[in-house]
Amino acid sequence: METIFLLVRNVVFVILIAVLIEMLLPSRETRKFVEVVVGLFVMITILNPIVSFIQQEPSIELEVAEGNEEQLQQILDQGQGLQQVQAAQAESYYGDHLEEQFAVFACMVPGVEKAETRVQFATGSSQDEVGVIERIDVLIKETSLTAVDPVEEVTIGAESGEVIERVETEQDMLAQVQKTVASLCGLEPDAVVVTLE
Question: What is the CATH number of domain 99-154+164-197?
Answer without folding.
Answer: 3.30.70.1350
